[in-house]
Amino acid sequence: MKQMCKDLRFKMFAGPGVSITAVKASGVRIQTREYGELIDFESGCWAAILGHNRKEVTQALIENVEDSLHTHQFFDTEHPGALVRELTKAAAFKSNYMGTFISSGSEAVSLAVSLAELVTGRPRKLSFSISYLGSTPELHLPRDPARWTDLDIRECLSCTRQSGCRECGKHSSIDFSQLAAFVFEPGNSGGVVLFPPDKLIRFLAEETRAAGGLVIANEVTTGFGRTGKWFGFQHYGVFDSEANEPDFISLGKGLGNGYPISGVLVKLRLAEIIEAAGFRYVQSHIDDPLGCIVARKVIEVMQKENVIEHGAKMGEYLRTKLAETAARIGGIKEIRGRGMMNVVELDNSHKAKEVFKGLLEKGFFTGYSEVYNYIHLYAPLIITEEDIDALCHSLELILESDPAVQTD
Ligand SMILES: Cc1ncc(COP(=O)(O)O)c(C=O)c1O
User: Fold this and answer.
1) Tens of pLDDT along 54-90?
2) How far is the CA of 89 from the centre of ligand 1 (A)?
3) Please, what is the Cα angle at 102 between 98 and 104, to 5 degrees?
């Protein structure tokens, strides 16, 4: 009975060591018990691209929860197919995709990997050692070297060579003939925000495909406008044709604006092969109508309000403001970003966790990493210049008053 008084929430992550109790969230703001109102520069867990509790999305949930919460995979509803159609149109895909919808991003990546293995009959995958792909045992880092080739591409990130990757030879030991897929995460890398160069992605995608392998775009975080385009892969010219678009696209996070829905898009040609092969994959929440209804509404609002363009503009504004802060007071090693996916790497005179706590005190919720000493800023795409100004002003005050800097 005594045990019952203890908080029974089982936490498997390293938190900031301060208590933050959420009371309610709306737009870019989260009301908390300890810190009052916080401006959320994390979009929940990088998911609430339209802001929290978006009126039209919540309305769609309320209106449909009684009739369409959950069914069984044997039942058809109009929603999964309509969701694929609407997303294909909104994102201007050149090829035809089929799609299925599940619950978490990890499942969506894992399912795409299984499908690529099935189609190719090969077990090995290619990815990057900086790429977070999910929380399931086969996906989380470090991955099993018997089944994964995880390239260290840190040197390639700053490559200035005129020649291509074939001539460079750095990755010449990859045996592409063994690969089921190149699992490409276009730039998030667990919040580190590093963008693999165009020529490297061209080389890996082309070689993988020439040897009979497939390309999986992991768009769990980079999708739904986060990078300033509908999908992160759309920044890379190698995928810019019907034939070359990714074979599988894994979706999550922004798809439901915080509601737990994820999905896998599969090129029509492959989907037909997989269906004919009798592949079976069943879980409790396949194509649940309510999640699909929510996602359809998210897409509708994104289009109606040009949310992606706004997010991209705000991302540029944020980086400009951060650069001004860095120039004025120093303390910042690097600012990286694309769209509203940004990281501020601090120099050694500051500790990211302390800066995070300082920002909390001033009314801002951000991400941080103690390992890489950065603050990350993945605000909802609807954030305003005013909120960005307020964040940058507070960050400047914190960096200026950080005792570690004053003693330097
Ligand atoms: C790039 C990437 N892939 C996969 C995942 C896993 O998604 P989920 O946490 O919804 O399982 C994440 C989550 O942060 C991610 O950032």
Assistant:
1) 999 999 999 999 999 899 999 999 999 999 999 999 9
2) 24
3) 125
Ligand 1 neighbour 220 (Cβ under 6 A): yes
Write down the pTM of the prediction: 0.96
SS3 229: coil
State if residue 134 touches ligand 1 by the CB under 6 angstroms criterion: yes
Q: Ligand 1 in contact with 251 (CB < 6 A)?
A: no
Pick the closest to residue 262 from 271, 250, 247 (CA basis).
Answer: 250
Query: Could you tell which of 45, 218, 220 is best to mutate to test the pocket of ligand 1, judged by most ligand atoms within 8 Å of the CB?
Result: 220
Check: CB of residue 226 under 8 Å from CB of residue 307.
no
Domain boundaries, the chain: 2-53+306-405, 58-304
CA 107 to ligand 1: nearest atom: 11
Q: CATH code for 58-304? A: 3.40.640.10
Residue 119 CA: distances (Å) to CA of 28, 166, 272: 42, 27, 11
Give me the CATH topology for the region 2-53+306-405.
Answer: Aspartate Aminotransferase, domain 1 (3.90.1150)
Which phi and psi angles does 397 have, rounded to 5°? Answer: -60, -40
User: Tokens 């951060």 identify what position?
Assistant: 322
Whether the Cβ atoms of residue 352 and residue 27 lie closer than 8 Å to each other: no
Which atom of ligand 1 sits closest to the CA of residue 252?
A: 10
